[in-house]
Amino acid sequence: MTSNLLKALAASAALTLCAASGAFATECIAPSGAGGGWDFTCRQIGKILYDIKAVDTPVQVTNMAGAGGGVAYAYVVNERNTDADLIVAASSATTSRLAQNAYGGSTADQVRFVGAIGADPGVIVVPKDSPYKTLKDLVEAIKANPASVTFAGGSAAGGYDHLKVLQVLKAAGYTDIRKVKYIGVTDGAAALTQTIGGHVQAMTGDMSETVGFIKSGDIRVLATLTEDRVPGFEQIPTAREQGYDVVAVNWRGLYVPKGISDEQFQTWATKLKQVAESDEWKAEMASSGLAPFTKVGDDFQGWVENVVAETAALSKEIGVIK
Question: The domain 3-119+250-317: what is its CATH number?
């Protein structure tokens, strides 16, 4: 989507919001419709901010769907660049789309990423009766014959689920990643159906999509793509401990306008850390299948920019972008 079109959509959104604005000190924009992951982030973090008295008044949640988050991004950059009372939900999808230029030339340094305080762990899954017992078994099979394994995932080719597998294979020293077979389906549930039904050999997705199938015994999770084993699923090894240094999680967090002061940015970083450390957020993570993943403050911006650069390089390698 072009930059001019995104700006036009953002300007239209701004007029709508001005007409509907209320008397709230803090606003959280969810760059999606109600019910999605960004909506969850705004509503849960906003609620806990108020519950733990980090803010004085309830947080207003504004849904601003469009261009996979691009409309909200352009709106913040162009219309609300100095608004210290604005926070915006973000995730791994935000960085992937910035890396693949899906936001019409927008870049990660046009806002300030405050932090991430939870994540849906990436996983590599096979059917319960699969001959692949470990992640190494699967990786070695692909290295020997790339055509022998097809993955299904809930993102399109070049999307986040696809990239998870490619990161693991590159960590294993496999460079001919265009030969890796991947089928993008509508969502994680469909990818699991394809896998359990034997139509593909493996699935790449998020832990939250697989919990019910783990409990029923229909699948085997070969690895979580986390720094440490996931609480409640300690029997599943990480890719790292199996020799593949990959962390790929769908993190949940916030960004704020770039034009706010350093002091205002640090205030938001402190408040987000308070949420991360609260019993309320820990309970919410447990009930929602999220794993601990806390990166808050100045270092997070650098981490985001590094992720964007790595994703862009990998996307070029597989031909998603030029």
Answer: 3.40.190.150
pLDDT of 21: 44
**Where in the sequence of the chain do the CATH 3.40.190.150 domains occur?**
3-119+250-317
> How far is it, in rounded angstroms, from Cα 70 to Cα 64?
10
Tokens at 210, concatenated: 């697989």
How far apart are the C-alpha atoms of 57 and 40, rounded to whole Å?
Answer: 19
Q: What is the mean pLDDT of each run of 10 residues along the chain (322 residues)?
A: 55 46 74 88 97 97 93 97 97 93 94 96 96 98 97 89 95 95 90 96 92 92 93 92 95 97 98 98 86 92 93 92 89
Where in the chain are all domains bearing CATH 3.40.190.10?
A: 121-242
Residue 276: enclosing H or E segment and its boundaries? helix 262-277
Annotate 249-303 with DSSP letters as a single string.
EEEEEEEEETTS-HHHHHHHHHHHHHHHHSHHHHHHHHHHT-EEEEEESHHHHHH
Tell me the CATH number for domain 121-242.
3.40.190.10
Contact 207, 289 (CB under 8 A): yes
Q: Is 137 helix (H, G, I), strand (E, B) or coil?
A: helix
DSSP secondary-structure letter at 238?
B
| pLDDT the model gives residue 167 | 95
- Position 265, amino acid: F
For the record, the structure tokens of 316 come out as: 């070029």
> Residue 7: what pLDDT?
54
The amino acid occupying position 195 is T
What is the model's pTM? 0.81
- CA–CA separation, 160 vs 174, rounded Å? 19
Per-residue confidence (pLDDT) for residue 9, from 0 to 100: 55
